[in-house]
Structure formats: structure tokens, C-alpha cells
């Protein structure tokens, strides 16, 4: 996605959607940026929040998709490299907003594996990156600067 965005940059505003991961360049006419809905992890037809971004990628990682049962244990596709097992985390979904899609993907997955509090703390230390973390109980947790992008 980043290579496509680099190739299109300078040719007017655009929004790339690659399987739900987005890159927003410029802004639609008369707007300050692209308004992007962050899907509710339990109801994809509903947005948890909307953010407004320009020259940024918006990428979400979630444990609510790609799930299966192995015996009595619920499994998901996000593996904690420390254990080699599906991450035991209180985060159901993490959306990262970053200047590059590849970085946003890494940030979202790492923050989800770390869990809500440790993930938020870690994302807050990365300049130019914001995040939304959604707990198992539905609580929305924001990085310090994310409020400026909410719509």
C-alpha cells in the first residue's frame, strides 16, 4: 500500500483501501481530511469512532476475526512471539494511525499483543503515531493525541 501511495502522491487527493487497511492522501474537496470509520469489533456495520486524517495510514488489528476452537480453547491468529501462542490480551481491537501503512500495521499488532495499558503507553512514546485500543469490555482507550483526529 505504501508503494501505491508513493506512486499516486502529488496527483490529487486519494484514499487507498487494501482489505480494510487505509491510506489517506490529501483531502476531499472542501474537507480538512478524510473521515474514516473505525469498525466496532463486534458489529462491523457500526463504527466505534470516526477519525479525520490526511497523509496517514489507518490500520486495525483485532482478535474478533480469524478465530477458531481448538479443543476447549478459543484461538485467534495474532501470535505473541514471547510465547508462540495466540496472544492473551485484554485488547479486542487496536487501530493505529501512522505516516506509513507498514508501520501502522506493526504498531497495531504489537500494541494489541501488549494489551491495552502497555500498548497505549508504548504507542504514546512513538512520535507521529496515534491509536485507539478497545478492551474486551467495550471500553475505548485513546492515545494522548488521538482526540484531535476524532470526528
Low-confidence stretches: none
Total number of helical segments?
Answer: 3
Amount of beta strand: 35-45%
Strand tally: 12
- Radius of gyration, in angstroms, nearest whole number: 16 Å
Structural class: alpha+beta
Head-to-tail CA distance between termini: 25 Å
Largest sheet entry: 6 strands, antiparallel
Order of helices and strands: HEEEEEEEEEEHHEE
What is the overall shape?
globular
Share of helix, binned? 10-25%
Strand order of the largest sheet: 1-2-5-10-11-12
Average per-residue pLDDT, rounded, comes to: 90
Structure explained in plain terms:
- The chain has 151 residues and is of the alpha+beta class.
- The chain is 20% helix and 42% strand.
- It contains three helices and twelve strands.
- α2 packs antiparallel against α3 (116-124).
- It is globular, with a radius of gyration of 16 Å.
Keywords:
151 residues, alpha+beta, 6-stranded antiparallel sheet, two-stranded antiparallel sheet, 3 helices
Quick structural gist:
The chain has helices at residues 2-8, 101-114, 116-124, and strands at residues 14-18, 21-25, 34-40, 43-53, 56-62, 67-70, 73-76, 79-80, 85-86, 91-98, 130-135, 140-142. The chain has 151 residues and is of the alpha+beta class.
List the helices and strands and how they pair.
Elements: H1 2-8, E1 14-18, E2 21-25, E3 34-40, E4 43-53, E5 56-62, E6 67-70, E7 73-76, E8 79-80, E9 85-86, E10 91-98, H2 101-114, H3 116-124, E11 130-135, E12 140-142
Antiparallel strand pairs: 1-2, 2-5, 3-4, 5-10, 6-7, 8-9, 10-11, 11-12
Helix pairs in contact: 2-3
Amino acid at each position: 500500500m505504501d508503494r501505491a501511495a508513493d506512486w499516486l502522491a502529488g496527483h490529487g487527493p486519494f484514499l487507498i483501501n487494501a482489505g480494510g487497511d487505509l491510506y489517506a492522501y490529501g483531502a476531499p474537496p472542501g474537507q480538512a481530511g478524510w473521515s474514516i470509520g473505525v469498525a466496532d469489533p463486534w458489529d462491523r456495520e457500526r463504527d466505534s469512532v470516526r477519525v479525520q486524517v490526511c497523509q496517514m495510514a489507518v490500520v486495525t488489528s483485532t482478535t474478533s476475526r480469524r478465530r477458531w476452537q481448538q479443543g476447549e480453547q478459543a484461538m485467534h491468529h495474532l501470535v505473541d512471539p514471547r510465547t508462540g501462542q495466540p496472544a492473551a490480551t485484554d485488547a479486542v481491537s487496536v487501530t493505529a494511525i501512522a505516516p506509513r501503512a507498514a508501520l501502522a500495521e506493526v504498531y497495531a499488532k504489537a500494541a494489541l499483543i501488549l494489551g491495552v495499558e502497555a500498548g497505549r503507553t508504548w504507542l504514546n512514546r512513538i512520535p507521529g503515531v496515534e491509536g485507539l485500543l478497545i478492551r474486551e469490555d467495550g471500553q475505548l482507550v485513546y492515545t494522548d493525541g488521538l482526540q484531535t483526529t476524532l470526528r
